[in-house]
Amino acid sequence: MTLWPPDNQKGVVLILTLTIVTILVTVTFELNRQMQSSVLSAAVVRDRVLLDHMIDSAVEVAKGILIADKNDSEIDSVQEDWAVPEKIDAYLAGMPFEQGEVGLMITDELSRVQVNALVQFPDGKDYNTAQRDLWLRFISLMLAQQEDARQETAELFTDELPEPGAVINPIKDWLDDNDNDAITGLDGAENEYYEDLDPPYKTRNGPIRYVEELVRTKGITPELFYTLNEEVMGISNFVTVHGLAASGDKFTYTGKININTAEMPVLAGLLPLGHEFLAPEIYNYRIEKAEERFLYDLTGAAWYKQVPGCSEVDIPEELITTQSDLFRIECFATVNDVQKIATVIVERQKDAESGKWYCKLLRRQYE
Q1: Which of 155, 186, 167, 157 has its CA nearest to residue 224?
Q2: pLDDT by residue for the chain (367 residues), tens digit each?
Q3: Which residues pair with 326 in a beta bridge?
Q4: Between 85-92 and 7-72, two packed helices, what is the crossing angle to 10 degrees?
Q5: What is the assigned CATH class of domain 9-110+326-366?
Q6: Distance of CA 269 to CAs 135, 150, 253, Å?
Q7: Which of 202, 261, 275, 303 has the least C-beta neighbours within 10 A?
Q8: How far apart are CA 215 and CA 298, in angstroms?
Q9: 3-class DSSP state for residue 329?
């Protein structure tokens, strides 16, 4: 009886053995890969859940800071805790997350120019004159910045920058509810213009819902809207669609900008024509310190007249305020090289029954 295959079958057995071993090794590697993938997926899910908790916690911290501020102060300014990075870091230090990193920044939404205040809402047909003049100054300055940046770069631009009116009139036509094909000025645009585009679309004929919608209006180029480079910021950084407020039995957009928090380009737009050079003086006056204490009181809206060079300057009262209940909360969280960023818009409101302040969520956006 033969106990071992003949020589001519030994090769077959060897091949079968090697095949089985190869299959077992392949299966082992695949199982290992699947296990590693599952572990990695579980880790990513775990990190994302943790990121959500970190973001939510940071937002709640911001809300708490804003509510405490409302109870302690009648004005809102860059001198308060919510606007001071060191104070924010101190609040975040108490968050119970042992791993990862979380960051938070709070800005006043009324430090921005209110797009929807450009027309007289709720009538929504005619320009708000003070806002139109503000926009003309603001857009003129932004376009001048763009022009300077073009001259300093070697990049060639084939298009010409528009005139301020060619930017503002189409925005007014986009907002107004009087779409009867009567465009504003020579460079406005109503449905007839937009329906000839590819793809075609219609004007809003009402308040803009998202700032990004401005890019759909004639005259607002991506270059003007977005950040051009590290030094030249687009208008998207300085405008807002929020600001709806009660006015008697109606709602309106007052367009008032908080002079205590407005950024440099907005301050320059608020100033009378030819006085925009005073914007840095006003900006620095607000944050000037001595021995870690702010020097100047920003309570009254006319405090800017105390700034050197501003005693004879007059900013229309209907354009400025020193109070705000609208805030932008920007926070990020990072865990194991995974990052999540959230932008939240909140409005401080008082509960009718308890009389306590709370923050109502208006918008949440993730990146």
Answers
A1: 167
A2: 455 555 556 666 677 777 777 777 776 766 666 656 555 556 667 788 888 989 999 999 999 999 999 999 999 999 999 999 999 999 988 877 778 899 999 999 999 999 999 998 887 788 999 999 999 999 999 998 888 777 776 555 656 788 999 999 999 999 988 656 678 888 899 999 999 999 999 999 999 999 999 999 999 988 889 876 667 789 999 999 999 988 777 889 999 999 999 999 999 999 999 999 999 999 999 999 998 899 999 999 999 999 999 999 999 999 999 999 999 999 999 988 888 999 999 999 999 999 999 999 999 998 8
A3: 347
A4: 120
A5: alpha beta
A6: 7, 22, 18
A7: 202
A8: 35
A9: strand
**Could you tell me if 299 and 20 are in contact, meaning their C-beta atoms sit under 8 angstroms apart?**
no
Contact of 113 with 240, CB cutoff 8 Å: yes
DSSP state of 127: B
Token readout for 155 is 């990049």
Give the number of other CB atoms < 10 A from CB of residue 55: 22
Please give the Cα distance from 314 to 83 (Å, whole number): 27
Q: Where are the domains positioned within the chain? A: 9-110+326-366, 114-237
* Residue of 324, 295, 333 whose CA lies nearest to 70: 324
Tokens coding 83: 């606007």
* Angle between the N-to-C axes of helices 164-175 and 129-152, in degrees from 0 to 180, rounded to the nearest 10: 130
DSSP 231: S
Q: Output the CA torsion sign for 74, 81, 293, 268.
A: negative
Residue (of 334, 362, 308) closest to 48 by Cα position: 334
Report residue 174 as tokens: 């986009």
* Distances in whole angstroms, Cα of residue 262 to Cα of each of 110, 171, 294: 8, 22, 17
Q: What are the residues facing 359 on neighbouring strands?
A: 348
The answer to pTM > 0.90 is no
Comparing CA positions, the residue from 213, 197, 127 lying closest to residue 165 is 127
Fold of 114-237: Ribonucleotide Reductase Protein R1; domain 1 (1.10.40)
Q: Cα Rg for the chain, rounded, in angstroms? A: 29
